[in-house]
Specification:
This is Sulfatase-modifying factor 1. It comes from Neorhizobium galegae bv. orientalis str. HAMBI 540. This protein is an alpha+beta fold and 317 residues long. It has one domain: paralog of FGE (formylglycine-generating enzyme). It has five helices and 14 strands. The longest helix is centred in the last third of the chain and has 13 residues.
Length: 317
């Protein structure tokens, strides 16, 4: 997968083999919903982007679990950092991937991505300063935290006594159970005028009409939740899952993609982001997916937390 939908490091780890995780559960769990498991499925028999491994549909059995209603916000992540002293990988690397149009000062761009000029590397871009120096999080503490890698997300999950959801759990929650639907809200297609979530409206990447009210991220509880009660499972920010990325196909293209994914230890992300549009990155569908290396981070990548169900309890963790 190229960096078309989210920034990717796509380079050796430069001596950073992972982020030390605080394994002591000390954080406060977020509001979560109990999800009934059982026989269900993951993927689709009607893939739109076959190269991503959206199909075939696969039957699977899930245990009951809980999933937080929203992505982890900047406010919660700040509490985690204040308590544990965690340093994110973007901070360690000294830069992160930023959607170039978010920059108020184009001189901050320090390196582009071949084939995707809308992505640029920005020195100093982190969860604290999402667009680099002079940017602030003061007015968006209720927005999803961004510029966090899979390793950072895993460290936070351990801190609250949770974990990252599997791809199957994420899809099961987004569909509201064992039923087929293209989007968390049903089958109706979002358009530049019909708004269900925070995605791009207009002509990407030149014109965003802002019909949904947001150019970048929206608050984690924006728009109507799906029937199960989960917010923003389509659009806003990509969400890390626990699973390694793999394309289930015998084609030469799939084999090459899998070799690449194995080399970089790519992980699955779900849900699409505020940059998605049907004409460009039609990945805000439930079955859509993307793979990135676990040290990658960008201005449109976040996460939410899952928990194992506790025997005898079904009212949330």
């Amino acid at each position: 997968m190229s960096g078309c939908c989210s920034g990717s490091r796509r380079e050796p780890e430069q001596g950073i083999s992972g982020v030390p995780a605080n394994t002591v559960s000390a954080g406060i769990r977020g509001e979560a919903i109990a999800v009934k498991g059982g026989e269900t499925f993951v993927g689709t028999h009607d893939p739109v982007i076959s190269a991503d491994g959206e199909g075939p549909e696969r039957r699977i059995s899930l245990q009951d679990f809980h999933l937080e209603v929203e992505t982890v916000t900047i406010r919660r992540f700040a509490q985690f950092v204040e308590t544990t002293g965690h340093v994110t990988e973007s901070e360690r690397f000294g830069s992160s991937a930023v959607f170039a149009s978010l920059l108020g000062d184009s001189s901050l761009a320090t390196g582009g991505v071949i084939g995707t000029p809308w992505w640029t590397r920005v020195d100093g871009a982190t969860w604290r300063q999402p667009e680099g120096r002079d940017s602030s999080i003061d007015d968006r503490l209720d927005h999803p935290v961004t510029h966090v890698s899979w390793n950072d997300a895993l460290a936070f999950a351990r801190w609250v006594g949770g974990r990252l959801p599997t791809e199957a759990e994420w899809e099961h929650a987004a569909r509201g159970g064992n039923r087929r639907r293209r989007y968390p809200w049903g089958e109706e297609e979002p358009t530049d005028e019909t708004i269900f979530c925070n995605i791009w409206q207009g002509r990407f990447p030149d014109t965003n009409t802002l019909q949904d009210g947001y150019f970048g991220t929206a608050p984690a509880r924006s728009f109507a939740p799906n029937e199960a009660g989960f917010y923003n499972l389509a659009g806003n920010v990509w969400e890390w899952t626990a699973d390694p990325f793999k394309v289930r196909s015998l084609s030469k293209q799939a084999k090459a993609r899998n070799e690449h994914a194995k080399r970089f230890s790519d992980k699955v992300l779900k849900g699409g982001s505020f940059l998605c549009h049907k004409s460009y990155c039609y990945r805000y569908r439930i079955a859509a997916r993307m793979g990135l290396s676990p040290d990658s981070a960008s201005s449109n990548t976040g996460f939410r937390i899952a928990y194992d169900a506790v025997a005898g309890k079904d009212d949330g963790p």
